[in-house]
Amino acid sequence: MPLSTSLRQFLDRFGATGSLLCAVHCAVLPALLAVAPSLGLSFWLSDSVEATVVIFVTLLGLASLIWGYYRHRALLALALLVPGLGLLWAGLLHAELHHSQVPHAIVMTVGGVLVGLAHVLNLRLNHRHVHDASCAH
């Protein structure tokens, strides 16, 4: 199902912004853990919130970048998305990694940055896509 250009751009911008904010969140998470209870922010650091965000990022990223691939036929954005999602899921599901603050923060940060960069690259690839006689879109 083809998406309008404005919807594709919105999805990529939304995905990139959310992924990069997630990366920042994961980078500062160890420091937040120390002060969160006194600020009433413990809920935002819970496993359920993290799982919800990873699921949302996965669905948004796959939908947006697969639609983008059908438009521009370049695998580079997906080549950033897949390892980024792999790191996010590893940080979420691998028990030892999930309960080790610094390694968990590093894995989740790198994963979030890769997913964010994949959205930015997809946005650029969609923007540069030229309709010509060889284009089916």
Provide a descriptive summary of the structure in words.
The protein is mainly alpha-helical and 137 residues long. It has one domain. Helix content is 81%, strand content 0%. It is built from 5 helices and no strands. Helix 1 (5-39) packs antiparallel against helix 2 (47-72) and helix 3 runs antiparallel to helix 5 (101-128). It is elongated. The relative contact order is 0.20. The mean pLDDT is 80.
Tags for this entry?
mainly alpha; single chain; 5 helices; 137 residues; 81% helix
List low-pLDDT spans: none
Task: Give helix % range.
Answer: over 70%
| Major sheet summary line | none
Query: What percentage of amino acids are in beta strands?
Result: under 5%
Order of helices and strands: HHHHH
Rg (CA only): 17 Å
SS-derived structural category: mainly alpha
> What is the number of strand segments?
0
Cα shape: elongated
Q: Kindly state the mean pLDDT as a whole number?
A: 80
